[in-house]
Amino acid sequence: MPTDSLPTYADVEAAARVLEDRAHRTPVLRSRRLDELAGCELHLKAEHLQRVGAFKFRGALNALSAFDADQRRGGVIAYSSGNHAQAIALAARETGMPAVIVMPHDAPALKVAATQGYGAEVVRYDRYTEDRERIATDLAAERGMTVVPPYDHPHVIAGQGTAVKELLEDAGELDVVVTPLGGGGLLSGSLLAAGALAPQARVYGIEPAAGDDGLRSLREGRIVTIETPRTLADGAQTTHLGHLTFPIIRDRVTDVVTASDEELVTAMRAMAATLKQVVEPTGVLALAAVLSGAVPDTAGRRVGVVLSGGNVDLGRFAELVGAP
Questions:
Q1: What is the CATH classification number for the domain harbouring 249?
Q2: Is the Cβ–Cβ distance between 157 and 182 less than 8 Å?
Q3: Which of 160, 164, 155, 135 has its CA nearest to residue 95?
Q4: Which residues participate in catalysis according to the annotation?
Q5: CA nearest 165: which of 1, 2, 20?
Q6: Quick one: pLDDT at residue 109?
Q7: CB–CB of 49/73 below 8 Å?
Q8: Distance (Å, rounded) from C-alpha 259 to C-alpha 202?
Q9: Is a pLDDT exceeding 80 seen at residue 185?
Q10: Which of 147, 178, 196 marks a domain boundary?
Q11: Same-domain pairing of 62 and 50
């Protein structure tokens, strides 16, 4: 599949075959107390329990598995605030190729350490003044490596779509599906899966209130670029949707809504209190919006929610959830 082509549900199915026995089929969690708080029947896809602690491993492994022999010899370069970084690093180790990851100076220490622990070289940059894509492209040209972006890549999108494919297979018929939204890889892949397996379901993307480029793009019918948002959701500090993710989202999503940092903390606390789970701020974007009532028409419905990641420094987690 060319890297500039829009993926289809057939690509999600192909990705599922690639990932079988290599990525976890994460559980769908239930909580009576969370159902009461949300006013609906929640089915929580626990991607924070995925390998590397986030759904990103799905897209990374699917993308690297499609490399030809020359690309494998050259290796992979990626840019990420953390979860895609770890995912590419582990996928590269498992497929036997070198990896270089461009990461911001303010990336969580846990994510940087994990990326290096998987054997990748880390190059740092300032996310507020430097262009990570340019840095990665220049390094790739110098070293003969292949860039795999965090979301705007057909194999990445298809891989991410397997999470909601599994959710729909394991939870049964859902009325609503809600996922976090940063660059759009997870949401666009989820839309492909839901369109094939649950065409009746309404699908919502949730982004940080401080980083509403997706909402603006949907309203204006074009890709809107914003300044790097300052939000607790470090995994969704994207400035724009992708050229592949945007048309899928534009044509298929029910709507995009936002969640505030305060709502993220409330959702993190709720997950810790009810299910004893550590989920990072970005990981609870979808749950936060459902709990706050920002997602319409969920009352009494069967609602699927993707918990996208759990990579948060424990000291920071305790600081956020410890004081109501």
A1: 3.40.50.1100
A2: no
A3: 155
A4: 56, 81, 207, 211, 213, 308
A5: 20
A6: 84
A7: no
A8: 18
A9: yes
A10: 147
A11: no
